[in-house]
Amino acid sequence: MVVAGREQPRPATFHAEPTSAFYAAIDSRQNDASPLTLQEVFTPATKTLGKLSLTATRQYTDCDEALWGVTTTGCTQALQATYQGGSMAGQFVIFNLADGRAADALVAALRKDGFVRQDVAFEAAGSRAQARAMGHYVTVSWVGATAPAEDQATTSVQDQVTALVALDGLGRVVQGRIVAAT
Predict the structure, then answer these.
(1) pLDDT, tens digit, for every residue of 126-171?
(2) Residue 5 domain flag
(3) Would you say residue 57 lies in a domain?
(4) Beta strands in the chain, from DSSP E residues, in sequence order
(5) Is 1 part of a structural domain of the chain?
(6) What CA–CA distance (Å, rounded) separates 144 from 149?
C-alpha cells in the first residue's frame, strides 16, 4: 500500500528487458510521431483482464509525475491504468520516449534508482513487476496482493504471474505501431 512518509515502494520481484531489433521500425519517435491515446491502449476489450477489472486511467504529459527516483528526458507522455479484482490489484504504465536508447536507459534506471509511483493499493512486499523497452516505448506492469502479507494464503505466486501476464498484454498496442511504421 502507499503510505505517506515511507520510502516509495518497489516490487519484490522485477524483470527488465531492453529493446531489440524486433522494434527497429519504431526505434525513434520520428518514425512513429502520433501520440498514443487512452482509447488506443485501453480499449473496451481490456476493461477486464482475467480476474482484474479496469478501475481508472490517467494520462501524464510530464512523465516524471508517474515516477519516483528517476527522471526521463524527452518523454512526451505516460498513460496509466489501474486494475483490481479478487485479492489482486495492479497497474500498467506506458511511456513514450524519444528513442530506443532513452527507453533502455529508463528500464535500466527502474532496476536500481527508482520506480513507477504506486497508484493502486496492494502490498509491494511480495509484488511482481516487469518493464520492457520496445523501440521508443517502455511498458511497466506491476501486480500484488491486496491482503496484508499474513493474510495472503489465498493469493498464490501463480495468481500474481497470471495477473502480471494479463497486464503486460496491454503492451501489444506497440505491435500495431510497428505495422503502421513499416
Answers:
(1) 899 999 999 999 999 999 999 765 555 555 788 899 999 999 999 9
(2) no
(3) yes
(4) 13-17, 48-49, 52-60, 67-68, 77-85, 88-96, 115-116, 128-134, 137-145
(5) no
(6) 10
